[in-house]
Amino acid sequence: MVTMVISPRNRRYGSREELWPLLLEAVSINNVLPLTSSCNLHCVFCSHEQNPPGVRTCYFSPLLLEDLEQLIPFLNGSRKIIVGESSTRLCEGEPLTHPQFLAVLKKIKRQFPETPLQITTNGTLLNKNLLPELKELCGGMPPGRFWDRPFHEVPALELVISLNSSSPSRRSIIMGDNDPQRALEGVRLCGEYGLPFHGSIVAVPHFGGWKDLKETLFFLEEMGALTTRVFLPGYTRFSPREHFFDLSLWRELNDFLQELRVNLEHPVVLEPPLKKDLLARVEGVIRNSPAQQAGLKSGDIIAGVNGEKVLSGAEAFYKIQKEEDPLLEIERPGMGVQNSREEYFLLKLKKRKGQSSGIVIAYDLEAEAIDRIKKEIERKKPENPLLFTSRAAAPLWEAAQRKMLLPQHLRINIVENSFWGGSICCAGLLTVSDFTKHLGELTREKEKPDLIIIPLKPFDHRGLDLMGEHYEKLFTAFPQFSFSFL
Predict the structure, then answer these.
(1) Taking the CA of residue 49 as centre, how many other CA atoms within 13 Å lie in the half-sphere pointing to its CB?
(2) Helix H segments across 224-329?
(3) Comparing C-alpha atoms, which of 267, 328, 269, 278 is closest to residue 302?
(4) Which residue, among 75, 74, 67, 77, has the nearest Cα to 98 in the 3D structure?
(5) CA distance linking residue 118 with residue 43, whole number of Å
(6) What does the CA dihedral 241, 247, 249, 251 come to, rounded to 10 degrees?
(7) Angle formed by the axes of helices 181-193 and 210-223, to 10°?
(8) 3-class secondary structure, 223
(9) Prior bond to 272 cis, omega within 30?
(10) 367-485 domain in CATH 2.10.260?
(11) What is the CATH number of domain 4-271?
């Protein structure tokens, strides 16, 4: 039986009937298999600890094996299966603390033997007992660092290690790690056992850690990380004051990483990216990958794939991933007269269909999302359409309009994350109350929109935000407006 523990700061709705749909949503829609909310660390930047009263997130004890056996068939074997990441209102913990972790993985691989599996972990439980078992699940690999072997030999299992710091003393302070050496040893053992892994860091230099951030990135490089994601930390108006920082940190992090990349071989990307265009700019290339073997370099811009122009970085990435031996149209800075970037060359990647290219591109907008908005406006023919967007995504939608990908009479309107406040500026954390506040301001404008397009990203499959409120409330509260939810 599934059991659930509701955080005392959150609204209680603790029945199996309410938890099970969240589990099915995570599995069937996001291809994420939740295991447990239990965690053996206490990170100062953990988002789970910053939820105010009323937020409909929930904690759950380790799922029983029989419950997981019911969930596994709902996974999609044609997509990467993920263990250990939050994708719904369920609060994910450290998956390796699940008492039957290996048994769960074996059941997944038994049902989906060819499907890539990604495990996100804090690394504290990666030891000499577990890693040989993980290696066996990969079908066995010779020891040694995996980038020294042909890229296609990388096994269909990879780790994302949320290391955050390579300093034992800093780990104790910012992560509550009472045995900080174990995660560092776990990272080292991944290289020894030939298991591919990516690094992950929540950057907290405002806690006095610029030097630590640099040292952690170089530690991950030395240990063999394929890539490292560096996350801008988040804080809300409910967070302790010592967690607050100026949003100029976003730019500082971007510039800091840009300088470090000169001396780092593996790709390091900032999330969310500080991006204001839709160029498919190569942020980095994984070692010994098809992209590196073909001669692709950081800073290259992918203008087309197989003779077709690409609209965005996201579209370029997915097209390249999908195709066998794709032919890329490349624009390299400095090739044209006076660095005009007007000269192009063609480059073929030798890869299988569906195989990773090794190209790292900052995520922006998917072509399908742009097309949905364009078609909705063409269908409804409004004279004064309005697109609601988050502050983080607004520059990307504006870039799409500059590229003539969206109608020029469409107005792009930023909805602030007023409920959460702090540094939160993303669509996924907008609430019905945020939209209500913004719509109230619109009612006082002289020029009223005749169509308001609202992203579905803040809502689950039932149309509920993180407070459990349905977006249908907006129809009732503002009958004078016409809405489209896309």
Answers:
(1) 13
(2) 248-260, 290-294, 313-322
(3) 328
(4) 67
(5) 22
(6) 180
(7) 30
(8) helix
(9) yes
(10) no
(11) 3.20.20.70
8 A C-beta contact, residue 406 and residue 374 = yes
CA dihedral (425, 431, 434, 439) in degrees, to 10, reads: 120
Evaluated on CA atoms 47, 221, 145, 324, the torsion sign reads positive
Instruction: Please name which of 256, 207, 198 lies closest in space to residue 233, comparing C-alpha atoms.
Output: 207
Say if CB 279 and CB 316 are below 8 A apart: no
Distance between CA atoms of residues 268 and 477, nearest Å = 45
- The residue ranges of the chain whose pLDDT is under 70 are 1-15, 139-155, 208, 335-342
Class of domain 282-361: mainly beta
pLDDT of residue 446: 86
- The pLDDT value recorded for residue 7 is 41
| Amino acid, res. 171 | R
* Residue ranges per structural domain of the chain: 4-271, 282-361, 367-485
Q: Which residues of 335-362 are buried (b: 16+ CB within 10 A; e: fewer)?
A: eeeeeeeeebeebebebeeebbbbbbbb
3 state DSSP class of 89: coil
Cα angle, residue 318 at apex, residues 191 and 271 outer, rounded to 5°: 60
